[in-house]
Design brief:
The chain is built from seven helices and seven strands. It is α+β, with helices and mostly antiparallel strands. The relative contact order is 0.12. Keywords: Membrane, Transmembrane, Transmembrane helix.
């Protein structure tokens, strides 16, 4: 199919959705280079739902919002809509020699997108749930130790930390430092509080392994 045909109004809604997926992915990857996460920022800006149960109202719950990160569900919906619409128009064009009226194609694509995106989001929610990580509630990470993995954390800027969870599993979370503190990559930290749905407060600590060695050395022989 020639480039001009892709730019035909019959394909524009689906090409726009595909372009949105590429842009969102590029922005997320670029943000991660600076220790930020677009997905976390969007989750923080959205109205709160029943976080403990992962439920969102009505059709949003069916689509997976509140169970998987908002950005993940949004990308799944946009990608499914884009692929469905392009396949519909391309198939009709090949069989009948013309494309469907854009609005009709959009409606048909949505009919395919809704159940397909719901299924895919449900699968992803089991892999990357929004509220739990590796089977634990995120509140359990408070008090755990780890280190800054990417970015520099200040009170106003988030960074990614790798934390050893209560079951010995590693978790990657977004953290901020206390006021006046700056936490560089590799800095050992302890999670002292959970600020909201996705952000934690981290405090600089001496290397936990070094603390254990000092404690053992202080014991009478």
């Amino acid at each position: 199919m020639m480039f001009g045909q892709w730019m035909d109004p019959a394909f524009l809604p689906f090409m726009a959705a595909g372009l949105a997926v590429l842009v969102l992915t590029a922005v997320e990857l670029s943000a991660l280079l600076f220790g930020l996460a677009l997905s976390d920022a969007l989750d923080n800006m959205l109205p709160r739902v029943d976080i403990e149960s992962g439920e969102a109202p009505g059709i949003f719950s069916w689509l997976g919002f509140g169970k998987a990160p908002f950005l993940v569900v949004l990308v799944v919906i946009l990608a499914t809509f884009s692929v469905s619409g392009i396949v519909i128009q391309h198939t009709v064009l090949g069989l009948l020699g013309f494309t469907l009226w854009p609005l009709l194609a959009v409606v048909l694509a949505l009919l395919i997108t809704m159940p397909s995106a719901s299924f895919l989001a449900g699968v992803l929610a089991r892999v990357i749930p929004s509220e739990e990580t590796s089977g634990i509630h995120r509140n359990e990470l408070v008090g755990c130790h780890g280190h800054i993995a990417q970015g520099v954390a200040t009170h106003d800027r988030l960074a990614e930390a790798q934390i050893a969870g209560p079951r010995g599993l590693r978790h990657w979370i977004m953290v901020r430092a206390e006021r006046g503190e700056q936490l560089s990559p590799g800095t050992p930290v302890r999670i002292i509080a959970r600020e909201d749905r996705t952000v934690f407060m981290a405090r600089r600590v001496e290397d936990p392994d070094l603390l254990k060695k000092k404690g053992a050395a202080a014991l009478p022989g």
